[in-house]
Amino acid sequence: MGVQSLMERRRVAFQKWLLVRLCDRQWREQLGEDAEGRSGRIVTVYS
């Protein structure tokens, strides 16, 4: 039972990480290339 709960916790953590990665990529795609020059610092932090 302890092992199962540990696996569940790792799976949930992975799903959260995956969701963050997907949102981050969509956010960067929406900004587009013109935003890279204006907010290059932000893009660098997230990449």
TrEMBL record:
<protein>
    <submittedName>
        <fullName>Uncharacterized protein</fullName>
    </submittedName>
</protein>
